[in-house]
Amino acid sequence: MVFDKATPEGDPHATVSGRDYYLGDKALYIAAVRANKPVYSRTGVIPAAGMQSAADMLVAFDDELKGAKIDLAKTFDGRFIAKAAAAK
What we know:
Elements: H1 2-5, H2 18-22, H3 26-36, H4 48-61, H5 72-75, H6 79-86
């Protein structure tokens, strides 16, 4: 899988300069990518707990969403990605 072979030292975003991605601190960028790589789905399927965690974070930190009650079942449909993952 390409994701498993990718490294933070490489430039996976060829259309954007590394300087823009590093935001002036290449070492910090590389450390952050390495530390967070395990949280990314290898299949593209996002478990319900992951969606809820992301929604909770947005509600907690986005002033426009503070106090919002988001019904994830009404805002996300994972059928397409589930079919794509099953086809591999």
